[in-house]
Amino acid sequence: MKKLLTISALLGSLIIFAPSQEANAASVAAPQIQIQVGPNRRNRGWQNRRSTIQTRIVRRGFATYRETYRVTYMRNGAVRTQLISRVRIGGRRY
Question: CB 58: neighbour CB atoms within 10 A?
Fold first, then answer.
């Protein structure tokens, strides 16, 4: 009787704990690193442009300004101009 009880307890514990061991082994087998072949495809637009800073003197009415621009030359031939700062350097002051 003791043998039958011991064998049934042993089989019952194997049924309960065996699936958890298999699930644990599957999670350990998952790769820990990621391998990427080729260049990073995100933010490719930043690689295809060239920017310069240009300053010019502009007269508007009686005032004279120094304007600073960022000029970006795209690879497809487009040009984007962005005003960075405008400083008054001369002219009438009321």
Answer: 11
